[in-house]
Write a structure and sequence with these properties.
The structure is a single chain. The protein is of the alpha/beta class and about 575 residues long. The protein has 5 domains: about 90 residues, no CATH class; about 110 residues, Beta Barrel (OB fold (Dihydrolipoamide Acetyltransferase, E2P)), CATH 2.40.50.140; about 160 residues, Rossmann fold (3-Layer(aba) Sandwich); about 80 residues, no CATH class; about 70 residues, no CATH class. The chain has a 5-stranded mixed β-barrel with strand order 1-2-3-5-4. Strand 2 and strand 3 form a beta hairpin. Helix 19 crosses helix 21. The longest helix is centred in the C-terminal third of the chain and has 21 residues. The chain is globular and about 85 Å long.
Length: about 575
Amino acid sequence: MIPKAIHDFVKKVVSGKHPHQPKAIEDRQANVLSIIETLVSGKSSHGSGVVTKREIKGVSTKDSGKDRTLIKFAVSDGENSVSCVAHNCDMKYGLGTGLKADVLTAFDAIIRKSLADGKHIKLKGLYANFKSERVFVVEKIEWEEDVHKSQISEKVVEDFLKVCKKEGITPLDVMMDDTGLWAEIYADEDLKKAILLYCLSPFDKEDMIHIGLITNPGEGKNHLVDKVISPLVRCRMAGTGKLSTFAAMFGAMSSDDLNSIELGLLPKMNHDRIVFSEFQTLEEDVFGEMLNVMTDGHYNMQKGKMDVTRHAMLNMAFFGNPPNYYKEGEHDKEEMLRAFGKYTMPIISRLTLIFAKPTLIKGADAESKIKEKILQNMDKTVSTGVNKSEINNLRTFFREYLKCVSRYHPKLKACEGIVTSEFARIEQTDQFSVAFAKRGKTDYRKWAELLNLVRGFTRLNGRHVVDISDIDNAIDIFQDSLETLTSSFPRSALNQGMDAGVLELYHKLLKNFDNGSGQASGTRSEMNRYAASLNLKDEWKTLQKMKYNDETPPNMVVDDIQGHLVIKSGWNGDA
């Protein structure tokens, strides 16, 4: 239960009645709906959003005047889009009084920057008919206030920490309380912490936190987004399968002009979050390109001699189900991770945290608590009266709190010895060696991710200096995630850089080319064609490089005897 003193403090800050918060917190979400509502009337209106498309047209007619410029662009708030025009044509052209050349140049600079970086702009103007189109003719463009800048100051955060200390709790305790942000869904402690870490905003690529969640259907993964993440922070849910095309995610490229490239969902959510629900339905080219963005926080698009960079520094969450044949008790836990397909190993390396478990909630009374939450949501008992007001205040306050603390840069040097010794202990375990140390004694990406978790917990608690409890929280959740992976794949298979598809192909070859001795044999061309028919050519190449054991010279899984291949039985990925 959240103490009354916390609710009182939060209410004062949200309403602008706190000594260090003289203004009420506003909703600064991008919105072009107010513009769309004047489509018929043509009245002057204003709105805000991100430029998603830009196209330049040269105009030189009797009505427009000589050597004029018309800029057509689209502005979107994520749900609605407006077709806009800015120009310097004469009045007779039919689009009202044109802008001065220097003003149009300045507007275009803002348009291009918004398109490149996904930054929000404010625009004012009115609708007019242009040929057969109804377009919004822009009179004024300027930068919107930074939507990622917190409306509360560090001083407010400090005051909040004092109240928490007086009540004997931490900000993290408040954010995890079942009567507050989590009032509409029941979840385990490790999942709550992972989601709150995910709700921090990344401003450097080292800040990005990616999480994976693989669980049985009906466990409430999307409910987690609707009831916790979206009401708290800016987050978009990506479409599934063919709805999340390359163009939708990264942007459609024009063959005529790279500058007219449409902005995809990834750069639109720069410094924010995206959830990929049912990620196993994504097309391979989209998923492959996503790997670089997860590491670098940007991507490049090339066309001819042009090379355009788009910034996409964001946290990604991958929610999905195990393969449809998976049955708990009948299949090994490794089968759950096959939802990642051929990208299993690269994804595991890039995910800060991953939880693969049939059910999200542990405990003997978990089922009854989940059912109780569902009933409360359907009866609207959580979102009424005082409860609703308190929950809304908490969401508003922590939305700005998270923006503020996300910009903190807690130094790790002072706790280097403790973190290093803890990581060294984890490195020595068989679990770590199995899961991450594929081509050496360690995985430096995992070391960086652990450090990021330490910083993440420090930020969640509103501190500039790392506390021992932050290290404990980071180690605990890191090990919880590690335990998810260690029963997933054979040790040497991971060390050799193999994924689940290779083992799958191995067993299919043994069955299809069985020579009666338990081994498989056939010509190279036969096996090449078979692997190609399964769309597993890359896995086939990898399998031919796999060692059967560590003898010298190495004994291989696939022996080539003058073009006739023999595949040994009894191999499970171990060398």
